[in-house]
Amino acid sequence: MKLSKKIGLISLSLVLSFATSASAAEKFYYLKRTSFSKYVWVNDGQFFTNINTACIEIENTANMYIQYWDKNDNFVSSQLISGSGWKCDNNPRYGTYRIKLLNANRNSEEKVRLVGGEIWYDK
Q1: How far apart (Å, rounded) are the C-alpha atoms in residues 89 and 24?
Q2: If both were cysteines, with which of 47, 90, 104, 113 could 35 make a disulfide (CB 3.0 to 4.6 Å apart)?
Q3: What span, in angstroms and rounded, lies between the C-alpha atoms of 105 and 93?
Q4: Rg (alpha carbons) of the chain, rounded to whole number
Q5: Which of 121, 119, 83 is nearest to 100 (CA)?
Q6: Residue-wise pLDDT tens digits, 67-91
């Protein structure tokens, strides 16, 4: 076997082993069907480390925020989610955070109705 072919196979092997180890470190939390008038904490307010993506599926046309809170219970950031269907916040957040889903229509009687969702995070 030629040297260039061996180097190519070694490189491919390294890439595949890195991809496998990187994806093995990622975890998923699955949100169940729920509805809320004001807000709900994801996973009862448990912390997630290095959140990669937060996706939710909204059943109705409600507007809501995905809020991120740090270990000191400080509000860090928020993403507005509008309309129905599958919506994602793809902005990675490094560190440890709790996630709060907040109804953006707080003066309305309309509840946010979620079909479910997923949080992708590190160990």
Answers
A1: 22
A2: 113
A3: 25
A4: 19
A5: 119
A6: 999 999 999 999 999 999 999 999 9
Tell me how far CA of residue 13 lies from CA of 3, 4, 10, 16, 73, in angstroms.
15, 14, 5, 5, 43
pLDDT in tens, 22-45: 455 789 999 999 999 999 999 999
Task: Write the secondary structure of the chain as one string of H (helix), E (strand) and C (coil).
Answer: CCHHHHHHHHHHHHHHHHHHHHHHHEEEEEECCEEECCEEEHHHHCCEEEEEEEEEEECCCCCEEEEEECCCCCEEEEEEECCCEEEEECCCEEEEEEEEEEECCCCCCCCEEEEEEEEEEEC
